[in-house]
Amino acid sequence: MGSDIQRALLWILFGLSAFMLYDRWEVYNGRPSFFEAETQQVATTEAPKNEAALPSQSQTVSLPAEAKTAVKAEPIQVETDLLKLSFDPEGAVIIGSELRKEKQTIPWTDTGLVGMILGNKAETPADVVLFTEQKGRTYLAQTGLIGGPYPTHKTQFKLVPGPLKMADGQDNLTVKFEGESGGVKVIKSFTFERGHYGIKVSHEVVNNTASEIKPSVYYQLTRDGEKPEGESTMVNAYTGAAVYTDKDKFQKVSFSDIADGDKDFQAKADNGWIAMIQHYFVSAWVPTQGVERENYTNTVGEKLYAVGSIQQMDTIAPNSSKTIEATLYSGPQDQTRLDAIAPGLSLVVDYGWLTFLAKPIYWLLSFLYGIVGNWGWAIVLLTCIVKAILYPLSLAGYRSMAKMKDLGPRMKALKEKYGDDKQRLNMAMMEMYKTEKINPVGGCLPIALQLPVFLALYWVLLASVELRDAPWIFWVTDLAAPDPWFILPILMIITMVIQFKLNPTPPDPVQAKMMAIMPFVFGIMFIFFASGLVLYWLVNNILSIIQQYVVNKQIEADRIKRQSN
Predict the structure, then answer these.
(1) Contacts 24+ apart (CB under 8 A), 405-409
(2) Which of 24, 107, 113, 173 has the least CB density, counted as fewest CB within 10 Å?
(3) Do the beta carbons of residue 510 and residue 463 sit within 8 Å?
(4) What's the helix, strand, coil split of the chain in %, to 5?
(5) Closest by alpha carbon to 344, among 291, 294, 271?
């Protein structure tokens, strides 16, 4: 019976390994992963440039189409310590953003041994680009007024004279644009703060008409459905829209949902935010909290999608003005930064169904990083801590494996005695296990305890931008990418072979062969995994070897002592 249980567990483990290897291969070939977050299948058609329609609201009046300018004005360039931005004077729309501190990741197939085999030469990584209107791509941050013939993101704005570059030692920079339509002037102010990706955006609405007006301001993110440029083929993370409110919390709205008109999110609220998410990065509008708004999604062109929020302003008397503010965040999914911008914004860091375990692991990993200053060594320390916490539970498994190895000669004698009579052999083995107080499946306990932590760490490495391009030592320059030289997977195979030698050889030849090839199956599978994940498993194996060796010696000493008595 014990042999049957072990055989079943081995087949399950073998099947899981084979399936995970197949899953990595599917992702490598651009198909969706079974384990990872829902991903929008991207289109290959070129998206139109800045042709997004105005948002609609049932209480407002639709605007007539505005004539396009005959000559496209040159974009206005703004530079801070973290961002290089391009503004289109038509609508004062952000049509370009480069993150100066974030670089495009070099593809795994361009580096290390893989790159040598394929003959690829990796280019020097450039700044990460989010907002863009080039190379057939569209990703824009738009605002405007609705409720009358007011300035929109199609109205021509003028730049208010002032500095466009944050000087050394300067803590803040404000760039202003003015636009007018229907007797209503809008002054858009973009205020940048040193060291922050969050941009404070204010709309001062000046009523130059003879009547009261009550406009609404809309905040909109428009994006094509393409996969982000530079994203690894080994990752199939979620790309799409999201809406957050206190009531319904975080809700993804995929591009396919937008195209189908599905609006399974809270439309009316006085809190929350809307966002466009991609792997490691996010752009989000956070309107003034406590003010009613209407969230919406639209298909605004062929393969072009928008998510936005409309917020009504108070009544503005003739010859007077009022101002409404919002925050636009566009940058890395740094959880500390996101928590400071708005409640729930850090939920864009998608840890999947293991969030409840991945969150504390990320917190502990960040704490350790604060001590050692290196994410690789933080993973090593994390592995040691997890191993120490689970050791009392794992000890029973190590003792069972050591005792079973110690009973190897007796098990061999039983097999010779009963030959092919498996029923009597199993009964004799179970009796021996009972006498020696051995749990035949106890040896599986150490692996079973590690699997949830392993899977949670997988999500942390996949989703946490802090580990993106994070080096460890020598050849490991990106803990979130596979090992380009296969050194960690090879070392992991070696440690698994040593573990196999330390454990008892299964009496069943089929089981024995499966155990012998298991290290190589895992090694091939781990070639496709993030090097940080392989590092965790490698350190875990090394600690397991030490613990198992010590326990084996203790059991052997006890046996010798019993025999001498």
Answers:
(1) 405/502, 405/503, 405/504, 405/552, 405/555, 406/552, 406/555, 406/556, 406/559, 407/432, 407/436, 407/438, 407/504, 408/504, 408/505
(2) 113
(3) no
(4) 40, 25, 35
(5) 271
Type of residue at 366: S
From 546, 534, 547, 496, select the one nearest 376 (Cα to Cα).
534
Q: How far is CA 342 from CA 58, 244, 330, in A?
A: 28, 10, 13
What's the Cα-to-Cα distance from 491 to each of 431, 520, 531, 539, 543, rounded to whole Å?
A: 39, 11, 12, 10, 14
At 189 the pLDDT is: 97
**For position 356, what pLDDT does the model report?**
82
| Cα first-last separation, the chain | 33
* Strand, helix or coil for residue 555: helix
> Which residue do the tokens 């209503």 mark?
184
Q: H or E stretch including 523? A: helix 509-526
3-state secondary structure of 37: coil
pLDDT of residue 82: 95
CA atoms of 101 and 407, how far apart (whole Å): 60
Query: Given this model, what pLDDT does residue 6 score?
Result: 45
Query: How many Cβ atoms from other residues are within 10 Å of residue 44's Cβ?
Result: 8
pLDDT at 41 (0 to 100): 36
Phi, psi of 302 (to 5 degrees): -70, 115
pLDDT attached to residue 528: 81
Token pair 């409110």 is found at: 245
pLDDT of residue 462: 77
Residues 23, 527, 458, 10, Cα dihedral to 10°: 70
Judge whether 115 and 126 are in contact, CB under 8 Å. Answer: no
CB-based contact 345:284 (threshold 8 Å): yes
**Residue 195: its pLDDT value, please?**
94
> 261: alpha, beta or left, given left = phi > 0 and alpha = psi -120 to 50?
left
Please choose, from the candidates 182, 219, 208, 178, the residue with its C-alpha nearest in 3D space to the C-alpha of residue 321: 208
Q: Phi and psi for 511 in degrees, rounded to 5?
A: -60, -40
Q: Can you read off the two tokens belonging to residue 110?
A: 């361009």
CB 158 within 8 A of CB 178: yes
Could you tell me where the DSSP H helices lie in 407-481? 408-418, 422-436, 445-463
Q: Got the DSSP string for 150-168?
A: ---TTSBEEEPSS--BPPT
Q: What parts of the chain have a pLDDT lower than 50?
A: 1-11, 25, 27-31, 34-53, 56-69
d(CA 146, CA 465): 37
